[in-house]
Amino acid sequence: MTAVPDIEFRTVTKRYGAVTAVSGIDLAIPPSAFVALLGPSGCGKTTCLRMIGGFEQPSEGQVLIRGRDMAGTPPYRRPVNMVFQQYALFPHLDVEENISYGLRQARPRLSSREISQRAGEALSMVQLAGYGRRKIHELSGGQQQRVALARALVNKPAVLLLDEPLAALDKKLRTDMQIELQNLQREIGITFVLVTHDQEEALSMSDFVCVMNGGRVVQIGQPSEIYDEPADLFVADFVGKTNLVSGKVAGLSGDLVDVVLADGTVISARKRLPLSRGDAVSVSLRPESLSLSAPGSGALNGIVRNRIFLGSTAEYAIEVQGIGSLLAKADHVIGQGNLFRPGEPVAIGFAAGAPLAFPHAKNNGTNQREDQNVEILS
Amino acid sequence: MALSMRGSLFRKNLVTALLLAPAALWLVVFLVLPFVAIAIFSVGERAPEGGYQAALTFAQYANLPARATAFWNTMVLAPAGALACLLVAYPVAYYLALRAPQRWRLILLAMIVIPFWTSLLMRTYAWMYILGGRGIPALLAYVGIEDLRLINTPGAVLLGIVYGYLPLMILPIYVSLERLDRRLLEASADLGATPLSTFLGVTLRLSLPGVTTGFSLVMILLLGEYLIPTLLGGGKVFFIGNALVDLFLQSRNWPFGSAIAITLVLVSVVVLIVANRISTRLSGARRVDLI
Amino acid sequence: MSKSYRDGLPITPDKFVDQLMRLKRGSIGRRDFLGLTGLGVATAVMARELGIMPTPAFAAENLGDRMSIATWPNYHDPQTFENFKAETGVAVEVNVFGSNEEMLAKLQAGGSGWSLFVPTNYTISTYKKLGIIEPLDMAKLANYDGTKEDSRFTAEGTIDGTIYAVPKNWGTTGFAVNTKKLAKPMSSWKEFWDTAMAEGDGRTMVHDYQLTTIGNALKYYGYSFNSLKQDELARAEELLLKVKPHLFAVSSDYQPGMRAGDAWMTMCWTNDGAQLHRDIPEIAYVLGNEGGEIWTDFYAIPKDAPNKPAGYALLNYLINPAVAVKEHLANGAPSTDARVNALLPKEVLDNPILYPAADLLKPLEFGAAATLTDPGRAELMARFKSA
Questions:
Q1: Stated pTM of the model
Q2: What is the reported pLDDT for B288?
C-alpha cells in the first residue's frame, strides 16, 4: 500500500498528569478502510479517537491526517467528523437544522439551496426522508443515531470517527445498524474509524481491527487473523470466547510445543511467542475447536455439567478432573441427535494446531471469559 | 378491590392535601388575602383623613395617568437595569460554569452569594459611603481631583442595581450553563464551527432559559425597586415603587396606591408570560419552568 | 484634604449603625418600613432577651417591665432611657420614624404597641378627630406646669380646652449652607432657590416632604407656607419643576450628604442645623426672611397604648426640667419650657440657630392640618418628584 495513510500516528503519547493514557503508539490507517479500535475500558482507544478529532493534543509524537501534521489545528479545521457517544445532537435544533449545522459553518458560505439539497440527500441516505422538521427528543434512539451519522457525513469528511456509536442501542437494532454502517462505508468509500469495547462488533464490521490494551496497540489485523492468531494471551482472551488452561512446556519442535497440563495430560499446541522448556504457559482452546465424543477416545475426559442448546449449536460446560471447567461448542446437525446430557461422562478432543500456547499470565487454572459489555466512560 | 383502591387513592389524596396544607395556608394568608384586600381598596375612595373608605368606583384606575411618568421611568429602568445586570453576569456565570477549576467553583459561587445574606439596604448604604464625598472622591482629591460628585448620579444608580441584583442573574445562568452538555460544544467544533459560532449557536442558545429566568427575575424586582434610586440617585427619579411608598405612607391615598399596585402586578404577570414564551421557543424542546 | 479623608474612613460599627438610624429621619427610614424598623425592633428585643439590659427589682407602681415609644431620630439623649429604666425597671423600646404620616398610618392601622409618641403640632387635631389619642390625665403628670410653657407653642396640644398633648420642643425650618462652597451670604428663600439653579447647581437638597418643599417654594413668591390656592400652588410648581434638574437630591436625609461635602445647601430643621453647625462650623443655618415654618413636637399617648401607666411615667419623667435639659442639649432643638430654658447654658440660649431673633420668628407659620392632608399638594409633590 503506497498511498498516503488517511490517519497516521507517529509515536504518540498522551499523558494526563501522572497517568499515561496512550503510550508511544505508531499506527497507519489506509484510505477507504473500516477500522475498529478495540479494547477494554481505559485502554486509550477513545483518547486516540479524540486526538484525531482534535479534542486532545498528543503529549508527544504526531497525528497526521492525509499526510498533514495536525499539531495546533483545532477541531473545526480538521477534515474529519465524529459520531459522538450518545450522539450529542443539538436539542434546540430540529433534525434538518442539526444535519445542516456543519454546512452552515462552511466558508465560503454555501447557498441555502445547496445546504437544503445536501441535507435532504443526507436524510435520505440514512432513511429519514420526511423527518427533517422533527425535534430531536421526538426521535427513537435508532433514529437519533442515524441523524448523528447524517450530520457527520453530510460534510463529506475524509475520515468518519465513530465513538461507541451503537452502545446505546438494543441488540436487534445494533445488528441492523452494524450492517447499515458497513454498507454506508462501502458506498461512500471513506475511512471509518470505530471505537468499541465490543469485540463482536469490531470483528463483524471492520476490515481491520486494532486491539489496544494499557495505552498500547497490541495487535492489528483482519478480524479472522485477530481471532485465529491472537498475538498474545490478552488478545486471545479478549477477542472471542476461549478456554485458558495452564501448563508447562515439556518439549519444543519448530512452531509446536508440548504442554503438560495440571492433570498430567500432554497436549500439542502452537506457540505465538518465544517459549523455552519449563516455561509456565496458558493454552488457549477455542470452544468451537473442542470436539466431544464417547468417553475414552479423546485427549481429556470430563463430565458434562451444563448444556445450552442454541439450535444450530450446543454449548457444554464440562468438568475436567484436575483442570477445571471447559466450555465446548458443538455444531448440531438436524436429525443426528447425539446430544450429551448433564452428568454424562464425555471425552474431549481438539483439532491439531488449534491450541495456542502463551507465556503464562496471572490467572491460574482455567477461565472462560464472557464478553465485556461494561465500560466506564473514559 | 375497586373499593379498596378508591380508599387508598383517597388516603393518598388526603396525605397530599395535608402535606400541602401549610404551603397553601401560607399562600392564602400572605398572598391571596393581601391581594384581595388591595383589589378591594383599589375600587374604594380615600377617606378625608387619608386611608380607605368603602366605595365601588374605578376613579382610581382612571387616575392612573397621573403616575404615567413613574410607570414610564420604571418601564425604562427595569429592562435597562436587567440588561446591564445581564451583561455583567453572563461572563461571570460563563467563567464559573465552563472555565473555573472545579474545586474553586463552590468557593467562587459562595463569594457571590454570601453578600446577599446582608440586607440590600445595608449594602446600598455602604455604596453611599464609597461613592459619597468621603469615599472615592476623597481618595481622588488626594491626587488632586477635587469636588468630584459620584453619588446621586445615573451611573451610581446603575452600579447599585447591577451590584444588588447580580447574584439573581448569575445563578440561573450558571445553572443552565452548568447543565450544558459539553459534548455539544465538541460536536459543534467538530462540525466546523469556530469558538465564536459555537458560543452563539450552542452555548448562548442553550443558556437562554437561564438568561430569561434571570432577566425576568431581576426585571420584576426592579419594577418594584425604590431603594437604590432613592439612596444612590438622590430620589430625583420617580419610580412606581416611590409612587407606592408616597401614596401609602405620605399622602395615605390607599385606594390610588392599591390601583397602582394591582396594575404593577398585572404588568409583572405579563412580563413573566412573555419571558416564558420566549424561553420556551428559544430553547426548543422542553417546556421551561421559570420560577 | 487628607484630613477629611481620614475623618471619613474607616467607619466604626457604632457609627455605621448610627448613620443607618439617621436614615430613619429621611426618605429611607420612612420607606424601608420592613427593613430598618424591623431591624431596630429586633435588636432591641434581642438585647432584652439576652439580658443585656437587666431589669432592677424595684418598681414604684405596676409599670410592667417594658414599653415602646415612637419618636424621631437623633431626638433623645440615649442616657435618658437608661436612667428611666434604672429608676423604674421599665425598658424602653425606641421606634424612630421619618414622617408624621408614617406614624399616623401605623396608628390608624392599629396595634402599634406604643405607649407614648411624639407627633408634630399639625397632626394633633387629626389624631383627635380620628379618636386615636386620649385626653391626658394631668394628675399623672406632676412635672407639667402649663404656666411655664410658651403659649405660642402649646396651643395646638389643647383642643376645646382639653389637653391632648404636651410640648417637647419647638423649632424652625430653614436651610443649611456650606459657606466654604457657597460664600455669598444668603438670607431668603428666594436666594435659596435662585442659588440652587446657579452656584449651587447639582449640590442642593430639598426635603422629600411636600409640607416643607412646597411651602418654601411658595415663600419664593411671598405666599403663605400653607397656601392651598390653585394659582399660588401652580406658580410654586413651576418653580419646583424649573429647579428639579439642578438638584443634588430630593431627600429628607440630608445630614450625610452635607457632612460628606457632596451637598452644599439643603432645607433643614433647627436641630439638624444645630448639629451640623456644631460639628462643621462652616455650615450655617439660615431662616428665610420671607418666613417659613415653625413647629412644635408634642408628647401624646395613643388610646390603644398597651402600657399606659409606663407611658405616663415616662412622659412625666421626660418633662422633668432636670431631664428635659439634657434632652435639649443632646438634640439641639429649643425648648418650650421656661424652667428648662433657665437651666440651659448661656451659649445655647444665645445660639441664633436655636433661638432666632424675634423679627425672623415673626413671619413664620405653623403648618396646618389641612396643608398636610391636602390631596392637591400630594399630587403636586408627585409631579415634582417624577419630573
A1: 0.77
A2: 41
